[in-house]
Amino acid sequence: MQVYIEGFQADGQIFLPLSSVAVIFVHRYCNADLFHLNLVGMKDRNAQENVTLSSAAFAQVSHSFLQDVDVPQLVQNSALPIVQDIRDNIVRSGLCCTLRYIIKLQHERCPGKSLVDLLGFRGGSLKACAELSGWTKLCEVDLPQSISQLIQDIKSSYDHSSKINFEIAADVMKLEWYFEKPPMLHNNDKWKRELIKQIQTETVAMATHANDVDTFVKNFFQEREIVEPHDSVVYRVVRMGDMRSSKRKEYVQKNKNTIADAERKKNRSSIQNGDLSQQSSPDDTKLEITDVDSLISVVNSMTLHNIEFVHLYSEGIQITIADLVLFVYVYYLMQSIQFNTALMLEILPKIIHWLEHLVKLPLLWQTCEALGFDVLGLQAGLKKDNTLQTSIGFTSPRNIQDLKNNIDIMEISQKCKSKYHPSKPDIDSALQIIKKMGIEPQVSEHPCGSNVQLDWEGMHPIAHPRDELPEKRVARKCQQLENLATAVKAIARDGDVVVDFCSGGGHLGIVLAYLLPKCQIYLVENKEESLNRAKKRVERLKLSNVFLYQCNMDYFCGKFNVGVCLHACGVATDMVLKKCLENQASFVICPCCYGGIQNTHRITYPRSQCFRDSIEYKDYLTLGHAADQTEVGIESEAQGKYCMNLVDTDRAMLAQEHGYEVILCFLQPLSCTPKNNLLIGTHNILS
Question: Distances in Å between the alpha carbon of 557 and those of 78, 94, 549?
């Protein structure tokens, strides 16, 4: 097993970006000696942009130092970090994908270590790609960039004598605010029921032997700990009154501006009426428990609401791979300020508390020591009375309240979905704008006309999708594949590299590999399960011209001649088109999920200059949502199809602006799928 990360050696130290250190940290944490580390020299060897590790950290690790030219071509086609399992001919790219694979394989070798627990509930930690999950994007893209920049700025400040204040990045604040949320817990009720039964049994047994009832009662409501292989789950028993008080405080914190306005109005009214007295409700937060019997009575009446878990880890109450990655980032940030955590305590109290807890975990401590992390220095810096004289300080972002009001914290833990749902008047208004601007869909016909059929009987049975799909879907899937495959055959030449983006189980790519044996076919897919299904079919067909990449689409950076995708969802369609335009590659694209289009860190809408000059973003989203209303027989079917054509005309115009000849046509027969548009583009230099 080969792992490729960025890094180079100089003056007895190893310089690496934060993502590379995260790979090394997880590699060492898992004791993953199955994997050989290859540190690839970066093109821009600017040591200021990297952090350092001592060469001694690699003393017991199988590793090599390589230059770009020494890296296999298949690996060069994707962004580092990468893990390559030569046995299955799959290149896995991206920080989260690489780390997840290391953990999974090491767990298979040593199941007793429970490493799979690091992948979270149902193995979902950092599984979704950055385009879909704001949480993955924060861990994989945003935080390493923001923290690296902050570390650079801090290092540069040591050359100045005057005091400098640094603004904490919004990405770091987003993590801080996330820790303020109650912890997410899957199977929440099940966990709590089991704990209540355990508490009730223990209380009856222990209370009868307790000499000091007061001490026992006091300790009863203290935090409790469940020790697990990699962490400790902490929870507390709360009295209903305490819980209501806590919830009131939480409500007041969230709605303090609204409450303040209401209080001011109430006070003005009281003054006008000459009544300054305030009526208060009885204090129900203090429940009298004077003896063992009253405690047992309270315990026996406990409900699920009486169990409260402590948000100790980034994804909830148990440590996951995300905590290991984030620990590396935050460790180096604290190292840059000589572990004087008091400088950030006021702004980042939750992160500091999380850091305090992590350094107490035995396995994490051992990993830090093995890699030469100054964990003792970090622990000393975390002491509240530690205050060092320094010439730097930190402030919250100037627009912090706007950021907090406008950022939906839950977006970093769930798949981001468009929240815009236009009404019929919104759709009518957007269509009126299009009509006023004189924009009309540019529709043509398939380059092969109606002759798009393939000889399925002449193919190997495994190349046919019938074994992978329900019977009722097979015929329509074959028709979809025929339309795209015949279009690619008309464009591709011997020796071309054809990339099937969002390849899923490989239905299209495998057919193309079978039809175009003199072309190389790359399957690019983020979902491991889908790619594994494709791998099995490729192996059974003994196709030597197929190569598989498990990665986010934007991590694939190889050169290619033709890009294809069948029903890439929403923004993914535009990412495929963007890749093709950047490579001046031909494309055959069948879009899907028009309602899923929205601005991302990679793609903005509208796409073409013509549409940008004509329609606002919100109206464009309206067209996308209307374009999803294309089910046969519904009232808005014709309107939905028209909006589909408008969105795809925008895409076609973008390609035309880049020197392409583009055809917007339909799959034949139209009934093979409601999303039956097909964009076919060839660059003029290829004509």
Answer: 5, 12, 11
Distance, CA of 629 to CA of 631 (rounded, Å): 6
Give Cα separations from 588 to 446, 472, 497, 567, 585 (angstroms): 11, 26, 14, 11, 10
Tokens of 344: 């950030």
551 neighbors 93 (Cβ within 8 angstroms): yes
Q: What are phi and psi of 320, to 5 degrees?
A: -135, 180
According to DSSP, the β-strands at 164-167 and 232-237 are unpaired
**Do 1-119 and 424-686 show the same overall fold?**
no
pLDDT tens-digit readout, 22-73? 999 999 999 999 999 999 997 665 656 799 999 989 988 999 999 988 999 9
Contact 662, 652 (CB under 8 A): yes
Rounded to an integer, what distance in angstroms lies between the CA atom of residue 516 and that of residue 512? 6
Tokens 């997880």 belong to 26
| Cβ-contact 644, 677 below 8 angstroms | yes
Q: Where are the alpha helices (DSSP H) in 180-239?
A: 188-207, 213-220
CATH classification of 424-686 is 3.20.20.140, yes or no? Answer: no
At a CB cut-off of 8 Å and minimum separation 6, what does 124 contact? none
Q: How is domain 1-119 classified at the CATH fold level?
A: Glutaredoxin (3.40.30)
Q: Are 25 and 367 in contact (CB under 8 A)?
A: yes
Instruction: Say which residues have a Cβ less than 8 Å from residue 306's Cβ, sequence separation at least 6.
Output: 196, 237, 238, 239, 240, 243
pLDDT tens-digit map of 345-396:
999 999 999 999 999 999 999 999 999 999 999 999 998 666 666 778 999 9
Question: Which amino acid is present at 259?
Answer: I
Instruction: Report how many helices (DSSP H) and strands (DSSP E) the chain contains, helices first.
Output: 25, 20
The H-or-E segment that residue 617 falls in is: helix 617-627
- Considering only CA atoms, which of 313, 387, 310 is closest in space to residue 351? 313
What is this structure's pTM?
0.87
- The set of residues, in sequence order, having a beta carbon less than 8 Å from that of 406 and lying 6+ positions away, is none
**Which residues, 6+ apart, have CB-to-CB distance to 591 below 8 Å?**
567, 568, 573, 644, 647, 648, 651, 675, 677, 679
Q: Name the residue ranges covered by the structural domains of the chain.
A: 1-119, 127-168+321-398, 188-242+286-309, 424-686
* Helix, strand, coil distribution of the chain in percent, nearest 5: 50, 15, 35
DSSP state of 371: T
Q: Which element (helix H / strand E) includes 92?
A: strand 90-93
d(CA 325, CA 332): 12
